[in-house]
Amino acid sequence: MTxxxxxxxPFSDQKPGTSGLRKQVAVFxxxxxxxxxxxxxxxxxxxxQGQTLVVGGDGRFYNRQAIQIIxxxxxxxxFGKVLVGQGGIFSTPAxxxxxxxxxxxxxxxxxxxxxxxxxxxxxxxxxxxxxxxxAPEKVTSAIFERSKVIDEYKILEAEDVNLDRVGxxxxxxxxxxxxxxxxxxxxxxxxxxxxxxxxxxxxxxNFKMCMDSLHAVTGPYAKAIFExxxxxxxxxxxxxxxxxxxxxxxxxxxxxxxxxxxxVMFGDHPPSFGAASDGDGDRNMIVGSNFFVTPSDxxxxxxxxxxxxxxxxxxxxxxxRSMPTSQAVDRVAEKLGIDCYxxxxxxxxxxxxxxxxxxxxCGEESFGTGSNHVREKDxxxxxxxxxxxLAVKGQxxxxxxxxxxxxxxxNYYSRHDFEGVDKDVANELMAGLxxxxxxxxxxxxxxxxxxxxxxxxxxxxxxxxxxxxQGIRIGFTDGSRIVFRLSGTGTQGATLRLYVENxxxxxxxxxxDTQEALAPLIQLAxxxxxxxxxxxxxxxTVIT
Length: 544
Ligand code: VG1
Ligand code: CO
What we know:
Number of strands: 27
Strand content: 25-35%
Bound molecules: alpha-D-glucose-1-phosphate-6-vanadate, cobalt (II) ion
Low-confidence stretches: none
């Protein structure tokens, strides 16, 4: 087996976004496109000779081919060992778990997460560091800089590795160990949650659960954990076969794309508990009978009830949320007397806080929740956390959330996505907002008064790194706010995200329809940003 050094020319568009490099499959299939990026990752790292790399993906189209290329490049570049999931499958939280458990140098995750897959869909690649978490901006910037000048990459000339058989083989001087994709992750879950109590709930006959894996990566994990270890009946997991194109759907667990689950949970005789996860298994949606839990509320409920769960019995050191996430968890932190951190969008910003034990639980409004058990958000972990709370409390999902609102007040919250906006128009809209920031403060807007208006900037409390331009925030004197930012995960055109939040302490006003409760702020957001006028969209493409 010989190591080939192949000449190449750079691509100018390999800048990682919110979570790795995401492009249409056809782009990744261009000669040398994947190879250039992988070599740029390796060239940006120090000290990996002889070390272990973890590799796996969400099973989408091009996953297997990409893994074979990465294995041969890892061998040619001097890694000692690669741990790869059987069939090339690892969920994102499973990769994080395995990097930590086996003290690997880092990991490569192949996924475009919630973006559609298949030959005409998207593909993605992301590097995770030794703590198991997404590479921080310092590393992703170095990768991008390298990708702009790269002129060669190294690859081993060798046969493909059999990814379907668990066990070790050698590839040049490197060992490839194919691991069962589920075992290590499931074992970690058993250390955190009261499986016995959850098993009693799921087999009691009074409690039915429906888990929708959207034909994405969590199928095998969910079946092994819920139907296997926890004794839930077969069929509890629906759409549980991972498919290369996710059955043609968006593997995005929200009320629009998880329509099968929504039909069940809002239909006649709904189960007590429903959940869905995304392409790579790091997102979760929680639903009760006829009742949707916003991800921001979910984070707050988990924080408030953490000590009911064995893994968090001793309490939570602190909590963290991304800036656009609702402030519901802030109120829990205040009551518990712990710190609450506000970070930019993207899980990579939680890593330092988790490592320094400043935060135990973290979350984003985009259906991401997680803790210090790994360094990624974790969909099935959140589902198990909810099941554990439900088993202890013996209440319905709706009752738990409504009790929570009665105690802390309700943060009405919604996100409006405008997908497929022309890029120039989106940039013009954001520039228009930026130009108003300096004059908005103190001004009346509709029936509100602006308390602050800025472009969110974050200084990491641990390493003091600064991240600027992380979203436009306009906050009002009554605590409500509107936030605007452009997505960093899309692959076509631009996606404008509008986040709207309003706090309601009065329990008698907790049952208003969310869109109705937020209507004045939504109207105002349109006026300030001229969304309809500039984009030509009459309404958002997705409302959460
Ligand atoms: C979106 C979400 C963000 C999340 C990111 C990755 O980013 O808003 O909260 O961290 O996706 O999630 P953006 O830039 O499109 O708003 V995942 O599950 O796609 O890796
Ligand atoms: Co994801």
